């Protein structure tokens, strides 16, 4: 069931007490008047907020069905907060034509700086996930790569997302006692400025910066994934310590679709960061496997964009402050694209639930296990 149909039905019931009374007496019949099938009418009548949330309905609306419609003042019957809705049909993917690759991975500094602190078998599986993603990125043969990361050490003027407009970007992992782990990237000022202009044209905030000091957020993934050293890279930096909006991150990515579609370049999009990860004192090293699994299952179900409907707290409470980076990528790729999890490893020593995910895009040449284009199906 489409989230907008569900939202409109719930709001209609909320505005009309007589309609709500009729609905309580005959959920299926009145639900049909509101465009609902019998199953989803029962979901609303029973106050099952978990299923409504997983279908993409925002929490400010889902709470009406329990606290107000069902008169459950404590919302005490709601459960299964991490339900993934598998029965509702996915929208047809609407991927920008020039987008040739989309995926995401963690940017764990210890993976390169001191991998020996984590279990060797877990490090090997995670590294293999990067290897497989690197093969798929190379096979996509992009002409420009957009990469999201969050701000770790560099301070910008505002709390807005930052787009790197410089001709080059450089840095090292000196803060992790490894200045030898350095990287220099070629930028694309013209493409980056087009992105800035498109965001501002939509009335959204963005900061442009000709200087992006590379840290582990970009060095760790790109030292493993960058197909060639001269590939132009445009960094997009989020600042979750200053502003945190899941909806805003997804909307930011959606605006970038117009640039990708109009520039005539083969574009790849890589999100970095997360999953669960805490920096606050006393909590570093915690891993929320349950919520990490929920996010990965949402990605696998093609419902990653629906995570942008969460209020900030559900993500922050589960250590997902870096998931803004992924939501930008998901907004660009669009809804309905199913993810493939190449690796997930909870690693307490390095401090989080680390993952590598590919979003195989539709209407592209199928790939074999190594990521190479092939003439037959998978």
TrEMBL record:
GO terms for molecular function: ferrous iron binding; oxidoreductase activity, acting on single donors with incorporation of molecular oxygen, incorporation of two atoms of oxygen. InterPro entries: Xdiol_dOase_suB. Residues 105-350 form the Extradiol ring-cleavage dioxygenase class III enzyme subunit B domain. SUPFAM superfamilies: LigB-like. The keyword Oxidoreductase applies. The keyword Secreted does not apply. Signal peptide: none annotated. Keywords: Dioxygenase, Oxidoreductase. This is Aromatic ring-opening dioxygenase, catalytic subunit, LigB family.
